[in-house]
Design brief:
2 copies of one chain form a homodimer. Chain A contains 15 helices and 17 strands. Chain A is of the alpha/beta class. The first copy, chain A, folds into 2 domains: 248 residues, Alpha-Beta Complex (Spore Coat Polysaccharide Biosynthesis Protein SpsA, Chain A); 162 residues, Flavodoxin domain (Rossmann fold, 3-Layer(aba) Sandwich), CATH 3.40.50.360. The longest helix of chain A has 21 residues. At the A-B interface, β7, β8, β9, β10 and α8 of A face β7, β8, β9, β10 and α8 of B. β8 of chain A pairs antiparallel with β10 of chain B, so a sheet runs across the interface.
């Protein structure tokens, strides 16, 4: 039997401590998942509350639809079998395109119903004998989640799954951030709830499949129309009281338009925690690599210095590379740098950043020949952007008095940290001066 | 009697529709505020939940502490008198520095108590005869708000104030985002609340000063220790049932570390809605200005083209300037561009962005003389950064075939929009190529 592990790096991919923790937790404290587990992901909402034209599950975050992040959060987990995504009929083609573009391999699309509960029921039916012709294996445990909660860690999902297997039903909760009040019909304060006694019910929720499927089969029309809580249905129709499990604050749901902006910022932040400096074989670049490691560490990043790209093959714990070189960027080296992860589908999921730091040991004032490089660098950057690599170039002059050199090192750290944090496609191919 | 208006641009300063709406709403639907209104802003929390070393009210957002944004949201409103900020004793000096640095003129600092309610009571006392020696005018209405809710619109604050004057007490509410559940002592689902009957109680809350002050004077030790809700105290001790008023989603509270990242992203987004293109007098720059207006409008920005800086003096609806020029950036013109707002304190509050687009009509390959400009531009950028101006330079070549020219216009739009949205201090003084 295998330990439950991730197929790739987990989300966020650049938070090594989280990934390490989750594996440690799984192997030490939790039983192994050796029964079929699948997911139903209702994504049929119209997104009225965001005030955006695009339903929020399809909003673009770093160029990729939000729902693809949520799908990936499940898909990377070995012990998850199938992810049934329930979308409105009119979004069926869009969803198929997303699956194709981002290489999602575990997804089945089911048409949504007129309410959230009808959509979930449609999703659950895909695993039953009355199913939709997918011929899917009936899961022992089914996870129900929201398409608009992309930040999901494996260790928490594991806890929910195991707890659902043991107790029949398990739901994520969070402490209430605000006090909850009841209003009179005149819109006045009736009473205040005692905050400590209540919790916000969040997603994911886990169920023994037979329990939640039975509960939905017994649902009244009124429940299909106005019900909000799957936990409540399991209690009413099957008498199973959900075990409640406190989750992390990242379970947060994208609800309003400002949340789309926030989600992108959080993803960018998590992607920029970690970087590799590829120091090369020259004394000068190796010297600079040590100084940059210190500078970037001070700026809050976790940095590894490696002599060559050989060392980072297949590690893929970072999508941020700082290449120190006495030459201008060239395609062969970029291909070599990224070949470790190139054949995996992860490449489509998050852009790779390459900050090519060109160490100029000649006269510091730019010469004509170097300026001739500018169009070449831009062409190269536009070329590799098609492979989801964002290439920037930073020129640093080496032969200068010590005081200036210190300032330049500080500057090159600021610039590279800024480029990594912003992940801006509008600045690719630029030659910046440190 | 004067209409209630903002002293400056409102927050977010670049959302013209919001500002316009709020003024329209105030003058059309709401009575004038002609009685003293002051604010108590408890900011004595330790920020345990953020998991950050700095208490969240002092976390830096675009280089400025979060609490300064919240203070500014009140300070810009003419009919607000005093803002009593309640901070822990050990943060007193820090708070004084913030007041000085950002020119906050309406703030008084009061020492916090051991709980939130004790801190609020300390704040309220500053207006009473038992006060702290400030000799402050007792307000008719006092607003209690959170230091960690920086997104506050004047029109909503006006509604809360007027409603508090009429009903004695008024509190902001929001619909519940999540279902609320009650747990058994074993951590299982006891029951689910009917979502439609309940609301999340948010801030700001408004009170007739005498009511809330009396309520706090009657507070028991247990209430000071464990109570969470001012509305509840007013109901219990003074028998006044708060009117509840639904507020916008922006009333959201910075609670966790991810929220600090989100708040910065939301502020950046709001600051980048609006830009001025200063077209100059040349045919070439005027031609480019029209093309850029179209490009940036397509990218979702609201853009005004003006021939010179004369036209934008004192408008200050935007902090983003795109200057088109056949010359390299120079200090005299930058001073002229920013002189309209220079004497107001707003200048310290939000950085001004200047994208200096240099139109190169000579041979497109950079010449030695232009490269000589690079150190000058960097020096200038570092100089004006001290005045909170972020200067970037974009070089565009003019004399080229039509097809290339179209691509260049597209590129210069992408670059300037990106610079404005990212507001990155690490890229100041760079000469980018479009």
């Amino acid at each position: 039997m295998e330990e439950p592990t991730s197929t790739s790096e987990g989300f966020p991919p650049q938070m090594p401590s989280t990934t390490a923790d989750s594996l440690a937790v799984n192997s030490q404290r939790y039983p192994i998942v050796n029964y079929p587990v699948s997911v139903v992901l209702p994504a049929a909402g119209s997104g009225e509350r965001t005030g955006l034209r695009t339903p929020k599950q399809f909003c673009s975050i770093l160029g990729r639809p939000l729902i693809s992040y949520t799908i990936h959060a499940f898909e990377r987990i070995l012990w998850i079998d199938t992810i049934v995504v329930v979308v409105p009929k009119e979004s069926h083609c869009l969803m198929e395109d997303i699956i194709l573009k981002y290489n999602h391999t575990k997804v089945k699309i089911v048409d949504g119903g007129s309410t959230r509960h009808r959509s979930i029921f449609n999703g659950l039916r895909a695993f039953s004998e009355q199913g939709t012709g997918f011929n899917l294996q009936k899961p022992e445990v089914v996870i129900i989640h929201d398409a608009v909660r992309p930040f999901l860690e494996e260790d928490f999902l594991h806890k929910i799954t195991v707890c659902a297997k043991d107790h029949g039903v398990c739901g994520a909760i969070r402490p209430l951030v605000s006090t909850v009040v009841a209003a009179t019909t005149e819109g006045k304060l009736d009473h205040t709830l005692e905050r400590a006694r209540y919790r916000a019910s969040e997603m994911p929720q886990g169920f023994i499949y037979d329990i939640i499927y039975e509960a939905y089969q017994k649902c009244s029309e009124a429940e299909f129309e106005f019900g909000t809580e799957c936990l409540d249905l399991a209690l009413r129709h099957c008498g199973v009281s959900a075990k409640l499990m406190e989750g992390p604050p990242t379970l947060w749901k994208v609800t309003y338009s400002q949340d789309v902006v926030s989600a992108e910022a959080i993803i960018k932040e998590s992607l920029s925690q970690y970087a590799y400096i590829i120091a090369g074989q020259c004394m000068e670049t190796q010297h600079l690599s040590n100084l940059m490691k210190n500078g970037l560490t001070e700026a809050g990043m976790v940095v590894d210095v490696v002599p060559s790209t050989e060392k980072i093959r297949n590690l893929s714990t970072s999508r941020n590379f700082i290449k120190l070189s006495m030459c201008w960027p060239n395609l062969a080296e970029i291909k070599e740098m990224t070949s470790g992860s190139e054949d995996t589908k992860d490449f489509a999921l998050y852009p790779v950043i390459i900050c090519w730091v060109y160490l100029n040991v000649s006269d510091c004032v730019s010469t004509q020949s170097e300026n001739d490089e500018a169009p070449n660098v831009m062409t190269l950057a536009e070329d590799v952007q098609n492979r989801n690599i964002l290439l920037y170039c930073v020129q640093v002059c080496y032969n200068k008095p010590c005081t200036l050199w210190e300032r330049r090192v500080k500057k090159v750290c600021e610039i590279t940290a800024g480029l990594i944090r912003q992940r801006s496609s509008s600045l690719i191919g630029q030659i910046l001066q440190a």
